[in-house]
Amino acid sequence: MAKVDELSAAPPAEATAEGGWPAVATVAAGTFTVVTSEMLPVGLLTPISGSLYVSEGTAGLTLTVTGLVAALSAPLVTAAVGRLDRRLVLCSLMVLLAAANVLAAWSPGFAVVIAARVLVGVGLGGVWSLAGGLGVRLVPAAAVGAATSLIFSGVAVASVVGVPAGAYLGELVGWRAAFLAVGGLALLVSAAMAVLLPPLPAAEAVALGGVVRLAGDRRVATGLAVVSLLVTGHFAAYTYVRPILEDLSGVGAPMIGTLLLAYGIAGIAGNFAAGALVGRRLRGTVLVIGAVLTASLLLVPLLGLSVAGAAALLVVWGLAYGGVSVSTQTWLGLAAPRAREGATSLFVAVFNGAIALGAFTGGRMVDGFGTRSVLWLGGALALGAVAVTLLGRVPRTSAVS
Asked: Is 279 helix (H, G, I), strand (E, B) or coil?
């Protein structure tokens, strides 16, 4: 435990920044692509289930499997790549992601789709665990916060452009074309990374045992608990947002993409708003995010019974959830500043495990109790995150939080 405390207490050594903003933008394109790949079934759940003759709850396993594999692969990939140049690893993982999406597009049955989604999970876990801590290596120290926000804006932009574009494309030419398009994008991003990223040798090999020991730090453990509750709650509901909008709010298929676009735009705003605040007011920022997410989820069955009401609540939902990634990643970075890759791999593991758990639990709730039930579940878990944030150990920031 002493080693963990020593790592989390001392500031990181000053590193020479290379690559600059073009490199940061390329990494953001990478996070956009992996999260678009992960989330693509959300906007296509109904056509996928119809085409492959499975229930919507079963189709939700396309998200569950990806999240579960990403949770397992994040610390394993980080440890397995040892001292390999991170640029080479990132490029290779993006190629794997491209192949996985092409396989999903070709798949003749649901089992092949699941196999493709396993590969997506490996690529997702590896890319995200390495990319999340690269801001400090690519820009000067004064710009690290902005760079980290930009890298994680890929998550919000994936909701804004990726998921709605997939839904639109699915309506126009079928869900398989959406997977092909994301596969092509992954190849383009891999090429851009090869050109724009500087060599990124590992500062030190990340041992799996050291990653696990980090979780023993109370600040790290509290942050991981908050991530787990917020993300499980969100994805219990968001995985089934299309059936929710269709069943509860009477939204027609042509409007789904538009409403998801509004959600995503709000998510981008939430990402940058949280990024600007979290470094100074960590606890307060996370509390606001949790409280607003709780309210937006619990109010959908009450006030979201029309298209207008659903649209308004979806925007508030997106604004709150848009800040989750950057604020919780910042939490883990502050809790273990000298073990950023290890902390990030834990973050990605818990985050994606929570996605898997949320999608799986939500699927069982939808099939057993209907679409309203996942909104109550999501709201209750988000409220739990508020309680943990209030009572748990929070890292120090530049201001009282």
From this structure: coil
